[in-house]
Design goal:
3 strands, 29% helix, alpha+beta, three-stranded antiparallel beta sheet
Length: 78
C-alpha cells in the first residue's frame, strides 16, 4: 500500500474529477487500512503509476467487484 504522502497525491488526482471518482474516493480510506486478512478472504488490490513525478493512473479492485481504473494527464492523450 502506498504511504500517507502518496495517498494524499492520489486523492488530489481523483478529486480533480470528483463526480466521476466518488467510488474510488470512498474506497481509498478502506484500502489504506493495514489489517490482517481473514482466512479465505479475497484481499483488495491497489496500484498507481507516476509520470514526471505526478500520479497519473490509479487502479483498485475490491473483491468480488470489478476493477476501477482512472488516469489523467497530457501523457495519456497520446
Amino acid at each position: 500500500m502506498p504511504g500517507a504522502t502518496d495517498l494524499g497525491r492520489i486523492r488530489a488526482l481523483l478529486e480533480q474529477d470528483e463526480a466521476a471518482n466518488n467510488l474510488p474516493l470512498g474506497l481509498l480510506p478502506r484500502l489504506a487500512e493495514r489489517r490482517e486478512p481473514i482466512e479465505g478472504e479475497r484481499q483488495p488490490f491497489f496500484a498507481f503509476a507516476e509520470h514526471d513525478d505526478q500520479v497519473a493512473f490509479v487502479m483498485m479492485i475490491t473483491p468480488p467487484h470489478n476493477v476501477i481504473v482512472y488516469g489523467a494527464g497530457k501523457h495519456l492523450d497520446a
